[in-house]
Structures are given as structure tokens and as C-alpha cells.
């Protein structure tokens, strides 16, 4: 848990999705990707549901900061644990397209029966 989240919790302030994106992106931007993933996995501790919306925020941060392979690895590890939605798939397609790797996003979509 970050110092900011500890202070927020101590003062009864519940973080929202914007707060989460700022925290996650701060770690990812400073190349502390594992800390961002660890924070995501401990969201319940700071009063945020570890759900599809939070997962999509983490994916967005990873793709935005060029951590495509980490995002894909995380995506594979979370399959079946979190329900993917349209936003999830938009993040995948957008992330791969940004790096001219659209064929890879097609493989991910082909492997999902719900898409």
C-alpha cells in the first residue's frame, strides 16, 4: 500500500477510479511496474473493488507507457478471475495497434469465446 493510500484510509477518504489511475500510472511511468501490479492485487485493502473496471485502468496505464508484453502477461493471468468486457478488449486492441501489432490483438480476441 502506498503512503498516500494509507493517509487516505486513515482520514476516511475512499479513493475512486481517478485516484486509482493516478496511483497506477505513477508507478508504471516511473518503471515500477511490479509495484503497480502489487497495488492492483491489494486494492481491497484501500477500499477499491478489484474488478473489471480496476483491471481496465491498469491495462490502460500499461499500454499507454509501452508495457505491452506485461499487459498481455497480466491479461493471461487474470483470465477466468475477472470478467473481461468491451472496455477490456478496446484496451487490448488499442494497445497493440499503437505499436503496429494488431495481428497479436486478433489472436487474443480469437481465443475468447465471449468476444
UniProtKB/TrEMBL annotation:
Pfam family, one: PPR_2
Placement of PPR repeats on the sequence: 16-50
Keyword set, alphabetical order: Repeat
PROSITE patterns, A to Z: PPR
PANTHER family, sorted: MEMBRANE-ASSOCIATED SALT-INDUCIBLE PROTEIN-LIKE, PENTACOTRIPEPTIDE-REPEAT REGION OF PRORP DOMAIN-CONTAINING PROTEIN
Matches recorded under NCBIfam families: PPR
Family assignment from sequence similarity: Belongs to the PPR family. P subfamily.
Protein name (Swiss-Prot/TrEMBL): Pentatricopeptide repeat-containing protein
Native source species: Vanilla planifolia (Vanilla)
